[in-house]
Amino acid sequence: MRIDIVSIFPEYFSPLDVSLIGKARARGILDIRLHQLRDWTHDVHRTVDDTPYGGGPGMVMKPEPWGEALDAIAGDVRRLDAEPGEVPGPGAETVPTLIVPTPSGRPFTQADAVRLAREPWLVFACGRYEGIDGRVVEHARTRMPVEELSIGDYVLAGGEAAVLVMIEAIGRLLPGVLGNAVSAVDDSFAPGAMESLLEGPVYTKPPEWRGLRVPDVLLSGNHGVIARWRRDQALRRTAANRPELVAGMGALDERDRRVLD
Ligand code: 6GU
Prior knowledge:
By secondary structure, this protein is α/β, with parallel strands linked by helices. It folds into two domains: 2-171, Alpha/beta knot (3-Layer(aba) Sandwich); 185-261, tRNA(m1g37)methyltransferase, domain 2 (Trp Operon Repressor, Chain A), CATH 1.10.1270.20. 30% of the residues lie in helices and 16% in strands. It has helices spanning 19-26, 63-74, 110-116, 134-140, 160-171, 223-241, 243-247, 254-260, and strands at residues 2-7, 31-36, 49-50, 60-61, 97-107, 121-125, 146-150, 208-209, 212-213. Helix 1 (19-26) links the parallel strand 1 (2-7) and strand 2 (31-36). The longest helix has 19 residues, at 223-241. Its EC number is 2.1.1.228. S-adenosyl-L-methionine binds at residues 127, 151-156. Keywords: Cytoplasm, Methyltransferase, S-adenosyl-L-methionine, Transferase, tRNA processing. It comes from Bailinhaonella thermotolerans.
């Protein structure tokens, strides 16, 4: 997968050299390219912001540097409104998906991570200040799919930290990135039996630590009983921490209901 990131703080992304994502890059599974938005300005101050039309606090990111940046990075792509018979320009085979992190976006979920992990090419546009001039997304939508995504109901100073979050969530799902190929299966929110359940507690050696024992069931070797115990723990934790997820699960079977009573 190729990922381009445009930001006025490309140095913010040094964590992408580390750990799982760093290894995926070193192994060629992930091709991450960082871009300084100011490289597409033309004034001596390399200005990327201006005062908002209509008044109000703060500054808005100017459209021109963003337009030039996206043209340079994704400019050879076929227009989305191209005629079926239209001869595409060079490099028209692949269209990136543009992701714009913003607290005004649709919530980014595990389902988005799974879907975006199947894309060959993502471009992330990191806004700062009060956001990017609205015409940038409007124009980009005529060229490529655009998703405005939020990582939660709080306001960050810019999209950079959100992009780190999304790239970690997406990157760990790429084939060959996780050491143990099945370790994403039991994730909280993973599609399947644990869908919309939070993972319960996990344990390792020693079997007793500071007077606390690992639950006997986990030492039993009975995988059916262990799976049921884990589901019970997940149900209890979800009911305690995210009751709205349990409410949204629909009718629980008798066994699940008893666990929560
Ligand atoms: Cl994606 N960006 C910013 N700036 N703040 C956020 C966010 C994104 N998601 C939640 N808060």
